[in-house]
């Protein structure tokens, strides 16, 4: 006599908590676009930075609560595409490139296309890439460069008739760096749970104080330095490999 094995029904659905943060990042990117269309550029760039914070939290929350899923990963990529690919390009176009015609349109599209290609490559290399490094500039950092530049221009009333070509260079560079082979530190090797010397805590507090005092300037300079670090780190690593082979 054979007994039938009970069928196990798998629960269908999605994890709510991490996807709430992803939805928040998606809304922040959407709000940045609508704010720029309404001429509220400062609100638009702040929304992009808010999207960056929420995007950084959703992955950490998923790992802490053990709620990672393939759906969450794909949803996060779609949110990143809007918030860090489309939103900064469109905000920059409306803010600085509307008088440049097709040149401005092309520059904004380079950033958008770079973001799409960067995310597609990241998804295909998710399980094989070196976790210590990102290949190409991460899209949130790439979005922070034009967003920070716009914020500085608004804060100090810079004439965009003069600085629009600087903006042109920044938005094209950010798009190309996303699809480059330069290696950027992921900072995943840092142990946030471990103990650190007291001087490190003081340094972190001072750093936060500097950023809060002048967020427009400091955020732009920090992410610009991170963007430059990719070519520098890659060249240093290649030089070390070349010297090792030579010796």
3D architecture notes:
This protein is 73% helix and 2% strand. It has helices at 16-37, 41-64, 70-97, 102-124, 139-155, 160-178, 198-213, 215-246, and strands at residues 133-135, 183-185. The radius of gyration is 21 Å and the shape is globular. It is mainly α. The chain has a two-stranded antiparallel sheet with strand order 1-2. α7 packs across α8 (215-246). The model has no long low-confidence stretch (mean pLDDT 86). It has a single domain (16-187, 216-246), classed as Four Helix Bundle (Hemerythrin (Met), subunit A) (Up-down Bundle), CATH 1.20.120.
Q: Calculate Rg over CA atoms.
A: 21 Å
Distance between the first and last residues' Cα: 74 Å
- Tell me the strand percentage band: under 5%
CATH class: Mainly Alpha
Q: Count of helical segments?
A: 8
In short:
The chain has a single domain (about 15-185, about 215-245), classed as Up-down Bundle (Four Helix Bundle (Hemerythrin (Met), subunit A)). Helices cover about 75% and strands about 0% of the residues.
Features:
single chain, 247 residues, mainly alpha, Four Helix Bundle (Hemerythrin (Met), subunit A), globular
Topology:
Elements: H1 16-37, H2 41-64, H3 70-97, H4 102-124, E1 133-135, H5 139-155, H6 160-178, E2 183-185, H7 198-213, H8 215-246
């Amino acid at each position: 006599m054979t007994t039938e094995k009970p069928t196990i029904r798998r629960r269908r659905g999605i994890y709510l908590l991490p996807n709430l943060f992803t939805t928040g990042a998606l809304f922040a990117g959407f709000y940045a676009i609508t704010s720029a269309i309404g001429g509220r550029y400062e609100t638009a760039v702040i929304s992009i930075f808010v999207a960056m914070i929420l995007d950084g939290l959703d992955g950490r929350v998923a790992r802490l609560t053990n709620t990672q899923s393939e759906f969450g990963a794909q949803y996060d990529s779609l949110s990143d595409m809007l918030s860090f690919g489309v939103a900064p390009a469109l905000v920059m176009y409306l803010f600085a490139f509307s008088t440049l015609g097709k040149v401005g349109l092309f520059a904004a599209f380079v950033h958008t296309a770079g973001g799409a290609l960067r995310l597609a490559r990241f998804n295909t290399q998710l399980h094989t890439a070196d976790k210590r490094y990102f290949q190409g500039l991460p899209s949130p950092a790439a979005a922070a460069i034009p967003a920070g530049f716009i914020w500085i221009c608004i804060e100090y009333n810079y004439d965009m008739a003069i600085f629009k070509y600087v903006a042109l260079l920044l938005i094209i560079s950010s798009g190309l760096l996303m699809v480059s082979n330069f290696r950027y530190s992921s900072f995943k090797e840092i142990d946030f749970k471990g103990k650190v010397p007291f001087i490190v805590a003081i340094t972190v507090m001072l750093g936060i104080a500097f950023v809060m005092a002048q967020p427009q300037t400091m955020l732009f300079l920090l992410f610009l330095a991170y963007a430059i670090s990719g070519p520098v780190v890659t060249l240093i690593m290649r030089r070390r490999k070349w010297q090792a082979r030579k010796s």
